[in-house]
Amino acid sequence: MIFTHSHFDHVGSAAAIIKATGAKTYMHEADAKIAEEGGGFRTMRAAPGLLQRVLFRIFWHPNKRFESFHIDQTLKDGDVLELVGGFKVVHVPGHSAGHIVLLWKEDKVMFAGDIGTNLLSIGDPIGFENEKIGRESQRKLGKMDYEAIVFGHGRPITSNASEKIRRVWP
């Protein structure tokens, strides 16, 4: 299981899945401690915008705990995981200090986690641990080329994805 970051909506069921399947786990080194301790989230603030502020109030619970689990391999920017055709790891902090995106199939598909959302349109995540760094990471995503992008929250974009992202995060 490759985790884009350690927020509970992305790792909350991980321990049960690992127990049931014996899956190996991968996460950026900056977020691995949170997974292994079952919480202890860093401070996060709502992203600008009404939708983000509303969703942040509904879904962000910094004291929420989850069953901890071991990270078998920590990741860093530039790593390549030789799984199902190869995943390139790109570190994109901001939403979370250890947030990563994954490029798959010779840079054709981007697994974007929560660097942003595609709920009503392409936009910010519900919050940032560090908005300034998050904006730099979004611009980094805008400089990359990929055909499709899949978000942790919202609809995928299945064609010309990098062009569409550049319009929002040049």
TrEMBL record:
<dbReference type="Pfam" id="PF00753">
    <property type="entry name" value="Lactamase_B"/>
</dbReference>
<protein>
    <submittedName>
        <fullName>MBL fold metallo-hydrolase</fullName>
    </submittedName>
</protein>
<dbReference type="InterPro" id="IPR036866">
    <property type="entry name" value="RibonucZ/Hydroxyglut_hydro"/>
</dbReference>
<dbReference type="InterPro" id="IPR050855">
    <property type="entry name" value="NDM-1-like"/>
</dbReference>
<feature type="domain" description="Metallo-beta-lactamase">
    <location>
        <begin position="1"/>
        <end position="153"/>
    </location>
</feature>
<dbReference type="InterPro" id="IPR001279">
    <property type="entry name" value="Metallo-B-lactamas"/>
</dbReference>
